[in-house]
Design brief:
The complex is a heterodimer.
Chain A: H1 6-18, H2 24-35, H3 41-53, E1 57-61, E2 74-78, H4 80-97, H5 100-110
Antiparallel strand pairs in A: 1-2
Chain B: H1 8-17, H2 20-41, H3 43-86, H4 88-116, E1 128-134, E2 147-148, E3 150-152, H5 155-162, E4 168-181, E5 184-193, H6 196-200, E6 205-208, E7 219-223, H7 224-231, E8 240-243, E9 248-255, E10 268-271, H8 272-279, E11 291-298, H9 305-311, E12 317-319, E13 322-331, H10 332-335, H11 347-374, H12 376-389, H13 393-430, H14 442-468, H15 472-477, H16 485-521, E14 531-535, H17 541-549, E15 554-560, E16 570-571, E17 573-575, E18 586-591, H18 595-598, E19 603-606, E20 619-623, H19 624-630, E21 639-642, E22 647-653, E23 668-672, E24 680-685, H20 690-704, E25 713-714, H21 715-722, H22 724-758, H23 760-768, H24 773-807, H25 818-845, H26 848-853
Parallel strand pairs in B: 5-10, 7-9, 18-23, 20-22
Antiparallel strand pairs in B: 1-2, 1-11, 1-13, 3-11, 4-5, 4-8, 4-11, 6-9, 7-10, 8-9, 12-13, 14-24, 14-25, 15-24, 16-18, 17-21, 19-22, 20-23, 21-22
Helix pairs in contact in B: 1-3, 2-3, 3-4, 4-11, 4-13, 4-14, 4-22, 11-14, 11-16, 11-22, 12-14, 13-14, 16-22, 16-24, 16-25, 22-25, 24-25
Classes of the chains: A mainly alpha, B alpha+beta.
C-alpha cells in the first residue's frame, strides 16, 4: 500500500473540495489558506506529479480564456482511486483519533 | 487585460529545469498570483514573493526530475538487460570486443605512462640537471657516442665557488664491493654520494636522519629491500656490514625502494667521505683530467638552460686548434630518452605501442558500430513503437547512446579486472615492472575515463543516429529499408579499415620475426657455444689456466681485454704513410695466444699469433674492414700500432660482428700480450657434464681468490640480451596482432550474420531454382574477398613504409619481400573466410521452405 505524505493527502483533499476549479493557482491558494503557511510551487508541483504517477489524479486541459493571456489551464481531477485512498486514510485516522477528546479532557482537567 | 510579465531570469531558471509543456502551467500559475500580489502589495513585495517562490521551488523540481530520470533509466536498463538476455551471442561478442579493446589499450597506457614518467617522481624534477661533457671524437667505451656523463673530480668544488646560480650540486660514483653476511660473500654495488644528493632528489628515508646520514665516512643508507635481505625483520639502524677487504659500514638510515622508473638505480648509498678515506685523497687538489664522477645539480626555477650552458663555455678546453671538451647540462626529464648519453628509453617504441593501442581501440569501436547497426533490424520494431507512442528523435538518440555507454561501462569494469589479472604477465612480456598502483594516479584515471567516454560516444553515435532515424510508418508496415546504399557502404568501409589495420599488424609481426630470425641465423663470425666468461678480478690467469686445464671438461682458457660481443675500447691507430689529419677511431683488443682459437676466428691472410716468434707487443692482426680503411693492398708486413707505430701486421681475420647488428662492422686491431692481468677470462668447456665442470671452475676460483664470489655468464646469453628490446617487441606484437585480428573477426562475424539474414529470401529462391550449397557459399564469400583485397591495397603501402623505416635501424637486415605481403594477405583471407563460413554455411544449408515462409 502506498503511503501518502501529509502534503499529498492535503492536496488530494483540496482538489476534491475545489471540484471543477482545481488548477495550480487555486490549489496553492486554498492550501495556504487552510494550512496557514506558504506552500511553494515546486513542492506543490512535486506532490501533484507523484499523485498523478500513482493514478490518484488525472488532468484535463481547460478551454483557453482571455484571462490567461489566451492559453489553456491544466485542471486536476480526482480519480476513483484517489477518493478510495482518501476514504482509507479517513477511516484509519478516525480509528486513531477515537476517544481522543475524552482522554485529552481527562488530562487537561486534572491540571 | 495588460499582460504582466515576471522577471526573465526566474523564468529562465525554471525553463532549464522543466520540459516545455509542464513549464507553462507552472510559470503561468506563478504569474497569476504575482499579478495579484502586484496589485495588492506593490512591486517590491511582489518581487520578494516571486523570488522566494522560485528559490523554494527549485529543490522540489530537481527531486521530481531525478525521480522521473530514474524511472526512465530503469526502463532503459531493463531494455538493455533484456537485449543482453535475448541476443546472447550478439551481446557477448560486442562486450568481448570492447573489453579486449579497452584492456589492451589500458595496458599500453600503463606502459606508456611508466616510460614517460621516468624520473618524474622527484619533487624538484624540473630544476634538476645532469652535467655531461662533449669530447669530440673520443668515444665512450662500447658505444658510438662522444658525450660523457662522467665529469672531472674537480668540477664540483670549482663550480660551487664560481657559479653562484647553482643551488645544490652532488657527485655520485659507483663501486663494487663484496659484503660479508654470516659467512656468505655477496657482490653488491655501492653508490657513493654527497649529502646534497638527498636534497636534490626525492628518495625518502624511512628511518634515520636525512641531514647527517651521509656525513661520516662509512655511513651507509640501505633500501628497504636490502634491509630485509641483510637484517630480516630487525631494525637496520646502527647495524654494521663489513666487506671482504675489512671496511666496516654503519647503517645510518633506511631508504624506500627506488622506483622502477628511475634512471638512478641503487640499493646502497654510501657517504662520499668514505672514498676520501679509502683512497686517502682530496679532490680539491685534482686537475681537470681526472674524470670519474657523475654530477647532478639544481638550478633556480625558470632558469634558461641555454643561458646557463653559455656560462659553461669558460670551462671549455681547446688544444691544437681543436675543441677537446666542453661542458653541458641536460634536464633530468630528458635523461631516459636520450640515447646519446646512455638513456635506455626509446621514444620510438613508445610511439609504436601507442599506435597499436589506438589501432586496437579503433577496431573495437568499429566493431561495436558494425554489430549494433547490423542488429538494427531487430531493434526497428521497438523504435517504431517508441516513436508512435511519442518519443522524440532526441530521446531515442539519448536512449541508444545510453545503451552504448552502458555497454562500454560494463566493458570498462571487465577490462579493469582483466588488467589487474594480466598485468604481471604483461610486465614480464615487455620486461618492465609495471604496477597497478599507477591507476591511483589522477592523470591516468582521467585518461581511462576519457578513453571510455570516447569509445562509448564514437561507437554509440552512428548506430544511434541510424536507428533513431527510421520512419515509424515504414517500420510498422514491415517494409523497412535499412539496407540503404549509404549505410551499407559505411559499414563496408569500417570492415575494410579494420582489416587494413589487421593486415598492417600481420605484416609488421612477420617482418619483426623475420628480422629476429635473420639475426639469430646470421653467421656472426665467431663461436659462441659453451663459452663462459667472467671478470678476472685480478686473478693470476696463468696459474688459474694451468689449474683449469687439468680438468678434461675444460677445453681452452683465454684472457683478453674484451669479448667478441663487446670490445669496448677504441683508439686512434698509427701506420706508415698516415696523413696527420686522418684520425679514425679503431676498436682495439688485446688478447693472449689462445683467444683466436677459443672463438674460432677465421684468418683470411697471414698467420695467427705465436709465442715462439716473439709476437708479444709488436704483432697485429686486423679485420678486413680495417685493412680496407687503411687502404693496404698487401697488409702483411705493414707497420702499424696505436697512437704510434709499435709493430707490424702479421695477419688479417675475416670480419665478425662484435657489435649488435644495428651497427655496421667497424675497423678492429688485435694485439697480443701474455700479461697476467687481462680483465676478462673466457673458458670453453665440453658440452657434457657442464654443471660439474662449472663447479670445478668455481672451486678453483675460490682456492685462488677467496675474497670474490665467482660470477659468470654464457656468451650466447649475453648475445641474446643484445636484441632483448626487439624480442620483447616481437612477442608483444604477436599478442596485439592476434587481438586486433580477433576483434576484427568479431566484427566480420556480426556483419556476415546480418547479410545472411538479409539474403535469406534470395538464398531460398536460388535453392528452389537449383543452386547448390557450394555455389551459395561462394556467392556469400565473394563479397568478403573484395573487401580483403581492398584492405590489402590500403595496408600494403602503409606497412611497407613503416617496416622499411624500422628496418633502417639495423645495419644488417632481412629484405622486406613480396612473400611477406603474400603471406599476410593469405592469413587475413583465411581467417576472414573461416569467420564468414559459419554463417554462410548455415544460410546455405537452411531449408528453403523455412526461409521462404519467413514472409
Amino acid at each position: 500500500m502506498k503511503v501518502l505524505t501529509k502534503l499529498e493527502e492535503n492536496v488530494l483533499l483540496v482538489i476534491l473540495k475545489l471540484r471543477d476549479n482545481a488548477y495550480i493557482v487555486t490549489i496553492k491558494t486554498t492550501l495556504e489558506k487552510y494550512l496557514e503557511k506558504n506552500i511553494s510551487f515546486g513542492a506543490l508541483y512535486l506532490s501533484l506529479n507523484r499523485l498523478m504517477r500513482d493514478g490518484y489524479l488525472r488532468t484535463e486541459i481547460g478551454e483557453a480564456t482571455s484571462q490567461q493571456g489566451g492559453r489553456a489551464k491544466k485542471y486536476y481531477r480526482i480519480n476513483k482511486e484517489g477518493v478510495l485512498k482518501l476514504n482509507e486514510i479517513h477511516s484509519l485516522q478516525q480509528k486513531m483519533w477515537k476517544g481522543f477528546h475524552q482522554l485529552s479532557d481527562e488530562i487537561l482537567e486534572r491540571g | 487585460m495588460k499582460e504582466i510579465r515576471t522577471p526573465q531570469s526566474g523564468q529562465k531558471l525554471i525553463s532549464i529545469l522543466l520540459p516545455e509543456p509542464e513549464r507553462n502551467y507552472l510559470v503561468e500559475g506563478i504569474e497569476e498570483i504575482y499579478a495579484l500580489k502586484l496589485k495588492e502589495n506593490g512591486t517590491a513585495l511582489a518581487m520578494l514573493w516571486y523570488w522566494k517562490e522560485i528559490i523554494f521551488s527549485v529543490p522540489f523540481i530537481l527531486t521530481d526530475n531525478l525521480m522521473w530520470g530514474s524511472i526512465m533509466l530503469k526502463n532503459y536498463l531493463k531494455t538493455v538487460f533484456r537485449l543482453i538476455r535475448r541476443k546472447k551471442l550478439f551481446s557477448f561478442v560486442n562486450l568481448l570486443g570492447l573489453t579486449i579493446g579497452l584492456t589492451s589499450s589500458f595496458l599500453i597506457l600503463l606502459y606508456v605512462d611508466f616510460e614517460l614518467a621516468y624520473d618524474h617522481f622527484h619533487e624538484n624534477v624540473d630544476n634538476i640537471y645532469r652535467v655531461y661533457m662533449h669530447q669530440p671524437g673520443n668515444q665512450v667505451f662500447g658505444s658510438s657516442t662522444d658525450l660523457w656523463v662522467t665529469t672531472p673530480t674537480i668540477l664540483k668544488p670549482t663550480w660551487e665557488e664560481e657559479l653562484p646560480e647553482i643551488e645544490k650540486i652532488a657527485n655520485i660514483r659507483g663501486r663494487n664491493v663484496v659484503f660479508k653476511k654470516s659467512g656468505q660473500l655477496l657482490n653488491e654495488r655501492l653508490t657513493f654520494t654527497d649529502p646534497e644528493f638527498l636534497e636534490i632528489f626525492t628518495f625518502p628515508l624511512m628511518s634515520g636522519n636525512q641531514r647527517s646520514a651521509l656525513d661520516d665516512p662509512f655511513s651507509l643508507l640501505i633500501t628497504q629491500r636490502m634491509a630485509v635481505k641483510y637484517f630480516g625483520e630487525e631494525n637496520p639502524l646502527g647495524k654494521t656490514i663489513s666487506t671482504s677487504d675489512n671496511h666496516v659500514y654503519k647503517v645510518t638510515g633506511m631508504l624506500q625502494n627506488v622506483p622502477e622508473n628511475s634512471h638512478l638505480k641503487f640499493d646502497f648509498l654510501a657517504s662520499f667521505n668514505t672514498l676520501y678515506s679509502i683512497w686517502d685523497r682530496d679532490w680539491k687538489s685534482d686537475n681537470w683530467l681526472n674524470n670519474g664522477f657523475d654530477t647532478y645539480l639544481t638550478l633556480p626555477a625558470n632558469t634558461d638552460q641555454h643561458q646557463f650552458d653559455e656560462k659553461l663555455r669558460k670551462y671549455d678546453l681547446e688544444g691544437f686548434g681543436n675543441k677537446i671538451w666542453s661542458f653541458h647540462v641536460q634536464p633530468l626529464k630528458d635523461i631516459h630518452f636520450n640515447r646519446a648519453t646512455g638513456g635506455d628509453g626509446d621514444i620510438r617504441t613508445i610511439y609504436i605501442y601507442s599506435a597499436i593501442g589506438l589501432f586496437i581501440l579503433i577496431i573495437a569501436c568499429f566493431n561495436f558500430i558494425n554489430l549494433s547497426t547490423a542488429r538494427s533490424a531487430s531493434r526497428a520494431k521497438e523504435v517504431g513503437v517508441r516513436k508512435v507512442v511519442g518519443a522524440h528523435k532526441r530521446q531515442l538518440i539519448r536512449q541508444l547512446m545510453g545503451e552504448s555507454g552502458l555497454f562500454t561501462f560494463i566493458a570498462l569494469i571487465f577490462s579493469m579486472i582483466s588488467v589487474l589479472v594480466i598485468l604481471p604477465a604483461f610486465s614480464s612480456l615487455i620486461g618492465k615492472e609495471l604496477s597497478a598502483d599507477a591507476f591511483l594516479n589522477m592523470k591516468l584515471i582521467l585518461c581511462i575515463v576519457g578513453i571510455t567516454l570516447l569509445v562509448g560516444i564514437i561507437s554509440g553515435s552512428y548506430p544511434a543516429l541510424f536507428i533513431s532515424s527510421f520512419q515509424p510508418v515504414s517500420i510498422l508496415k514491415g517494409n523497412l529499408k535499412h539496407n540503404s546504399k549509404g549505410a551499407l557502404l559505411f559499414r563496408n568501409a569500417l570492415v575494410v579499415i579494420q582489416f587494413a589495420i589487421s593486415i598492417i599488424m600481420i605484416v609488421s609481426t612477420i617482418t619483426l620475426y623475420n628480422q629476429l630470425n635473420y639475426i639469430r641465423d646470421r653467421k656472426l663470425g665467431y663461436d659462441r657455444d659453451h663459452i663462459i666468461t667472467f671478470n678476472s678480478r685480478g686473478i693470476k690467469i696463468e696459474t688459474f689456466k694451468n689449474e683449469l686445464l687439468n680438468n678434461p671438461g675444460i677445453l681452452k682458457v683465454s684472457g683478453s681485454t674484451g669479448l667478441p660481443t663487446n670490445i669496448g675500447w677504441s683508439n686512434i691507430p698509427a701506420w706508415e704513410g698516415k696523413n696527420p689529419d686522418d684520425n679514425p677511431f679503431f676498436y682495439r683488443l688485446n688478447v693472449d695466444y689462445d683467444f683466436l682459437d677459443i672463438y674460432g676466428l677465421e684468418m683470411v691472410k697471414g698467420r695467427k699469433f705465436s709465442q715462439e716468434l716473439g709476437d708479444k707487443g709488436n704483432a697485429y692482426i686486423l679485420n678486413e674492414t680495417a685493412v680496407k680503411r687503411l687502404g693496404f693492398d698487401e697488409p702483411i708486413g705493414q707497420r702499424f700500432g696505436f697512437w704510434r707505430i709499435t709493430g707490424t701486421v702479421i695477419g688479417v681475420i675475416k670480419d665478425f660482428h662484435f657489435e649488435s647488428l644495428h651497427k655496421p662492422i667497424t675497423p678492429l686491431g688485435i694485439g697480443v700480450y701474455d700479461r697476467q692481468d687481462f680483465w676478462i677470462v673466457s673458458v670453453k668447456i665440453n658440452s657434457q657434464n657442464m654443471s660439474s665442470t662449472i663447479q670445478y671452475i668455481e672451486d678453483t676460483w675460490e682456492k685462488l681468490l677467496p675474497d670474490y664470489p665467482f660470477e659468470f655468464f654464457f656468451i650466447d646469453e649475453r648475445l641474446n640480451a643484445m636484441y632483448q628490446s626487439e624480442r620483447k617487441m616481437a612477442e608483444s606484437f604477436n599478442y596485439f596482432t592476434l587481438i586486433a585480428i580477433f576483434i576484427a573477426c568479431l566484427g566480420l562475424f556480426g556483419l556476415t550474420s546480418f547479410i545472411a539474414e538479409q539474403k535469406t529470401r534470395e538464398i531460398g529462391i536460388r535453392k528452389v531454382l537449383g543452386a547448390s550449397v557450394s555455389k551459395i557459399i561462394v556467392m556469400l564469400s565473394k563479397e568478403f574477398i573484395r573487401w580483403i583485397i581492398l584492405s590489402a591495397v590500403i595496408a600494403f603501402p602503409v606497412s611497407w613504409y613503416a617496416m622499411d623505416r624500422w628496418l633502417q635501424n639495423f645495419a644488417y637486415r632481412t629484405n622486406l619481400g613480396f612473400e611477406v605481403f603474400t603471406a599476410s594477405i593469405v592469413i587475413a583471407f583465411l581467417i576472414a573466410q573461416l569467420t564468414v563460413s559459419y554463417h554462410s554455411i548455415k544460410a546455405a544449408t537452411a531449408d528453403p521452405v523455412d526461409s521462404l515462409k519467413y514472409e
